[in-house]
UniProtKB/TrEMBL annotation:
The chain crosses the membrane at residues 6-24, 36-53, 59-83, 95-112, 118-139, 151-174, 186-210. It holds the Pfam family GGDEF. It is an enzyme of class 2 (transferase). InterPro entries: Diguanylate_Cyclase, GGDEF_dom, Nucleotide_cyclase, Rev_trsase/Diguanyl_cyclase. Keywords: Membrane, Transmembrane, Transmembrane helix. Its EC number is 2.7.7.65. CDD domains: GGDEF (cd01949). This is diguanylate cyclase. The keyword Membrane applies. The keyword rRNA-binding does not apply. Gene3D superfamilies: 3.30.70.270.
Length: 383
């Protein structure tokens, strides 16, 4: 295929994708990644256009320094957009460090802009490192769809490898560089760079669609008030745990707010809702991140504590009762003096089915209620 035709076609596609991404941003302004990725596509198109103008009588400052800076800016903007999908905390200090690093890079590139070979090496290295960072950031993404994320991650790593290969070619054939600071054999790496950038631009919008799908999935699985797992999702998680080949022993816990009807009658439903949320937040803080917690009724919660013995489970349950009584005396400026009752059972998934375990934990909870509330009862699952 004719190389100039491929280049022009790739630039046109990037321009169209950039315009499409900007339209998406105008429609969903909260998704700033669309704007960043739109600017990334435009930056690549402008940089590629300036590179194509190098044979003409145009100042080298624009066709080399400005062009290469625009080409480097494209993956940097991709990286900035990916932060929205990652668990990376982009604090103010890190933002200042990033801008300082960009300023130093610009100064370094400006100092060598009259040496095309050195400039090409620095730009290729910077682009390669940036795409490596993109791959790492995608590894920590909140999007867990494996096929898509691995594909995009593979493109990032392949892009980085292409840039590092270009650096090796430049250094290996340093004595025979052309006026662009590149060896003639690097035409294939340049073509790969253009095509991979185009593939990246085409794939990026899917991240936002996957994010929307994830948000809808979470919404269907979460209780709207507490953000804990809702009843259906909690029981599905428990059933899935039982279906694992070698699940660890676990403790199933039922938790109920004491005298909740009196709270609603005395203080109103708004305070009642605040009480439900406050207990849910305390449970989330006190239990481990790998424990499964859900709201299965109005003021009733359930938890599956994985890989735990009876003695430790009892201590945890007693601590939960103590913390609720201590920390939740006041809710929404009302003196409600919240307490909870807990029923729990120790289960071996190879011997007990989850339906029997849930029933036994529920019976233990009612025993706690009958015992005067604000207490813990350890039940047993019948074989």
């Amino acid at each position: 295929m004719h190389l100039p035709t491929v280049v022009i076609l790739a630039l046109v596609i990037n321009l169209i994708v950039g315009f499409y991404l900007y339209l998406l941003y105008r429609r969903k302004p909260k998704d700033r990644c669309f704007r960043l990725w739109s600017f990334s596509s435009i930056s690549f198109v402008l940089g590629g256009t300036l590179v194509a103008l190098r044979p003409y009588d145009i100042a080298a400052f624009f066709t080399f320094f400005v062009a290469d800076c625009l080409l480097l800016l494209a993956p940097i903007l991709v990286l900035a957009g990916l932060i929205q999908f990652s668990r990376f905390r982009y604090t103010r200090r890190r933002r200042q460090q990033a801008f300082a690093l960009l300023a130093l890079t610009a100064v370094a590139l400006l100092s060598v802009h009259q040496h095309p070979g050195i400039l090409s090496v620095l730009i290729a290295l910077a682009i390669g490192i940036t795409f490596c960072l993109c791959a790492i950031l995608l590894q920590k993404s909140v999007i867990t769809e494996p096929t898509f994320t691995r594909t995009l991650q593979g493109i990032f790593l392949l892009h980085a490898l292409t840039m590092f290969t270009q650096v090796m070619l430049i250094l290996w054939q340093w004595q025979s560089l052309n006026s662009n600071g590149l060896p003639e054999s690097s035409v294939y790496t340049l073509l790969s760079h253009i095509l991979l950038t185009t593939f990246t631009a085409l794939l990026l919008p899917w991240l936002c669609f996957l994010k929307l799908e994830r948000k809808l999935t979470l919404k269907s699985q979460r209780d709207g008030l507490t953000k804990l797992a809702n009843r259906e999702h909690f029981f599905n998680q428990v059933e899935r745990y039982w279906q694992q080949q070698r699940p660890l022993p676990a403790v199933l816990m039922m938790i109920d707010i004491d005298f909740f009807k009196k709270i609603n009658d005395k203080f109103g439903h708004a305070v009642g809702d605040s009480a439900i949320k406050a207990v849910a937040q305390l449970l989330s803080k006190q239990l481990r991140c790998n424990d499964i917690i859900g709201r299965i009724g109005g003021e009733e919660y359930a938890a599956l504590l994985i890989d735990l013995d009876e003695a430790t489970a009892l201590k945890i349950s007693q601590r939960l009762c103590e913390q609720v009584e201590k920390q939740l005396q006041f809710v929404a400026d009302a003196k409600v003096e919240l307490t909870i009752s807990i029923g729990l059972v120790y289960v071996d998934t190879s011997q007990h089915d989850y339906v029997s375990a849930l029933k036994a934990a529920d019976e233990a909870l009612y025993s706690s209620k009958r015992a005067g509330r604000n207490t813990v009862t350890l039940g047993a699952v019948g074989l």
